[in-house]
Amino acid sequence: MSNPFPGMNPYLESPELWRSVHNRLIVAIADLLTPQLLPKYLVDIEQRIYQISGEDALLIGIPDVTIQRSATTIIETTSNVAVAAPPTQSLKVRIPWPVEVKESYLQVIETETKKVVTVIEVLSPTNKRPGKGREMYEGKRERVFGSHTHLVEIDLLRSYQPLPIFGNDIEASYRILVSRRNQRPLADLYLFNLPDMIPQFPLPLRAGDAEPIVDLQALLNGVYDRAAYDFRIDYTAAPVPPLSEADAAWADSLLRERGLRG
Fold first, then answer.
1. DSSP code string of 50-111
2. Cα separation of 236 and 251, whole Å?
3. At what angle do helices 18-37 and 216-226 cross, to 10 degrees?
């Protein structure tokens, strides 16, 4: 079964699936662009590696640790305030154990000069959630903005605050930012919501070069089919993270119409 949603599938945002979706989408974009850009450009898949710990580790699919408490007794103090006595058994708690995070992104490199012309990022929860991951990504983002490199930033996640931009007060669930080095501080922002198809966008290159059009919707649908996500997703359950009330009603109607809910 193909992707039942006309645009982004909110079930793919689940922490259990997103890493797979992210990696497959990165490869799909590279496979689309490489034959169109040769021989002048190469497309490389790069990785950044860093460590997170504590609560941030939950972002990358590590299951939460349930805090198990033993039975406690209530004792009476001289102040007549009831307090819990210390447990007679240990508590299960989480320590700030470092976890290595690897995130893939794309670089379009000019073959002759070996210079990076365009960086393509598909955002992950660690890029958006407050903490070390977001701080590191924002630092890289600012460095690209201050360079001669174009940036394409694809945000297919509803969770957490979007990365900062100015001049937009329109709220949307998803966005694609295309920042051309010769147009900064201006950039092109594509906004879309759950019922919308993902918009196509041109890939910025050197001035005068033909720019391929990236059909992200077709790429995502292809990833969905090849990974057989329809066998992994339970459409009778609510997606994680949850939808807004309006989007939940719309999604319920769509899934019932397509026979995925009773």
1. EEE-GGGGGGGTPPPPP-------EEE-TTS-EEEPPPSSPPP------EEEEEEEEEEEET
2. 11
3. 120
Q: How many CB atoms lie within 10 A of CB 14?
A: 15
Q: What is the pLDDT of residues 154-193, one digit of tens each?
A: 999 999 999 999 988 899 999 999 999 999 999 999 999 9
- Residues 57-80 as b/e (b if ≥16 CB within 10 A, e otherwise) read bbbbeeeeeeeeeeeeeeeeeeee
Q: How far apart are CA 8 and CA 240, in angstroms?
A: 14
| Assigned token pair, 145 | 């903005």
How many angstroms separate the CA atoms of 150 and 119, rounded? 6
CA distances 4 to 140, 197, 221, 240, 257, Å, are: 35, 12, 9, 17, 10
Q: Which residues contact 113 (CB under 8 A, 6 or more apart)?
A: none
Full-model pTM: 0.83
